[in-house]
Description:
The structure is a single chain. The protein is built from nine helices and nine strands. Mean pLDDT is 85; it is low at 1-24. A hairpin with a 5-residue loop joins strand 7 (234-235) and strand 8. The chain has 295 residues and is an alpha/beta fold. The strands form two sheets. A seven-stranded mixed beta sheet has the order 1-3-2-4-5-6-9. Strands 7-8 form a two-stranded antiparallel ribbon. Helix 2 crosses helix 3 (136-147) and helix 2 crosses helix 4 (156-164).
Amino acid sequence: MNRHSQHYPHYPPRSSHPQRVPTQSASNSGILPLAGEASGNVDIVAIHGAGGHRERSWTAKGSSQTWLGHKDMLPRNIRNARILTYGYNTAWDEKQSYYDAMKKQARGLIADVMEYRKITTTPPNRRIIFIAHSTGGIVLKFALILANDPCANLSEDYQSFARATAGILFLGTPHQGTETPSRLVNLYFTNRRPNTSLTRDFMTHWNKLQKRLLPYNRISDNYITKFYFEGHPTSLPDGSRDVLVPRWSAVVQGAVNAEAVMLNKNHSDLAKFKSYEDNDYLSIVNGIEFIISHR
């Protein structure tokens, strides 16, 4: 396994005075700016997974603010970047094709990102780096496939979305599914214990969706990709513990310009960091810096 060599940035001593921390929003729809200005030279966009929230999914237990926007974390490490988080409705109506639901989410991602860049008069050549946790990575893959479809009459927004994307950090995305169908259902239905009927129906939709995602390999050389996978098991609703998305699933086999990196976290905590001294956090920072320096 390859891993970026870690570097430990120097930080000045923290102030002894308490800092006012913004209250997290209850809303979970669309783009929320967390740090940086429109004049930055790169946009970093975080996408949560199923059952997630655009702020809470990125906030460690005991913290009151996400590492994406905390002044001592990502904004300090990645200067001159605008940091955004994206929220969307992950609910799936079991009467609806999961392919159609995912396509709607992917189109919504493209529309919301491009609309935000328009209203903030963002230069079209401003690079985008996506950080996608869990099933949010499936939404992003679908969006990039749509935006790179050579047979479609693509709008300018779709073309700009594809051109602006420089790289991706996938955090525990189940590209190849999971060891057992029930574990995959655990990822998508976070508050429900899988039953036989739900698992069977969902897997039928999932297998069809997987075929639709095959073109990603063809476009993967357009981007630098970091596949982060979990090294610790997750506690599940049935009382068991398991690694939900192991390495073999978290990596797209055959992807170009890609590297796999293990983090010493469980599935949920792949997206949550409490300290800038956390080696796993520094690995994420290094991944972002690598993309910036090579694109």
